[in-house]
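Entry 14: structure prediction run for Trypsin-like cysteine/serine peptidase domain-containing protein. Input pasted below.
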Amino acid sequence: MIIIHYLVKLLLFSLIFMSQNYLTVQQSRRILSLKPLAEYWNVPLNDVPKLLIIERILSNTTRILTPLLHQYNESFGGSYIDVKKNLVFINTIDFSKEQIIRSSPILKNFENLLKFIPANYSTHQLESSFNSLGELINRTDPVNIIMGISSFYNRIVIDLNHSDDKENEAFLNATVPFEQFIFMNYLSDNNSLSLRSTSDSPISRPHTKRFLERYFLAGEGLVTSDNGQLAVRCSAGFSAIDNTTYQKYLITSARCLLNESNRAIYHAPWEQPLQLNETELDHFGNIVLLQRTSADFALIEKFSNNFKLTPMMRSSVEQVQQVIIDKFNNGGFEIPEGHLLCICGYQSHIKCGPVTLRGAEVTLKSVRVDKQKDHYYNMLKANIIVSNVDVGGTVYSIEIPGDGPNEGVPLVVVHGIVSAKLRRGGTAIQPLSGMTSFSPTSDMFARLRFIDLGIFRQLQL
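Run finished. Output tokens:
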């Protein structure tokens, strides 16, 4: 009896030790996945969790602050965060209102994070001008521009290219009455990125067709055939499942895919040579929906039984080749200007940069053969250099909760997909909330569940 009692205690001790060791390994893997953020902020890896906590606090501060500033929208001109300075900067026209904001009871715990700085233009002036410029866009039909209110510049920033000046002449002439509110940001036409070939890479390995269970990870490549030519067209955003039909999908951008629905989509893992024969590729499924205006997204239905849905995303960190998608931000958290976002895509792998425009209007040359231009609303712009095949890839951030069961644990939060590569260091982003609220497809999105760790466990996919 004593021996049995001893063995039970030994077993319990072993289980506790194994559980603690597993949790330690998982925590270590999550910390290693923060390397791209450490590179962007130029700080040691161990400093990143502290900066993420600062970012969360500053973002929560702006969420509370913004409605107060809008009550005095002729006295203030927006706000933005600076994580390394641990401050929320507030553009101020009338400094007599500063004390009103500082003395608000709901800002009591954040008052020392506020920095009021002089500005020229109020939120009222900028929003009114922005709405007027939006009407000009509809009337003059410009191309390849992204327009939004920048709190950092305290202006309406319009990104455009001299190569489009002839097509945009009517719009440019019409903006003259608003020129004091506008910062025209002309972008370079000579900063294209070419697709990296991996066929001669020393870390590439021959790919043989396998009939094993496969996972199509967020950020990996989507291959299509165009007139017999195979190419990686875009990157995978994330996975979803229909609550009623149990159909399974990948979601990506429609801007990187050709016009035809029902086109076959194949899988391209990172750092493996692309096969030149369709029979050697892993067929995932077919395009079933392309949405190319107002909002940008495409649904690819899974037809292959060899693939399973997963809440995993590729990672560029050598020791951690994939990370878990912990949750999705479907409008529950408003991203402030200055917040750090990262993209996960086939060519660039992982890159990070700050949000520079929110609620932006974007007009791009159409990828549809029967249209000249496509217009999108309520987009984000971030200062991240991407390539054309990164389009469709995952847009995410890392957060560290201050309470709850995941307190202190770095979590991956997906906010949307890459919608377009801009010509100099910029990325247009389709927020998830813009997809799900798009009226013609809102009923469909209401049935979809996006595959994060919690959904994956519930459905046992």
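Notes: The chain has three domains: 45-118, 123-187, 214-461. Will compare against the previous run tomorrow.
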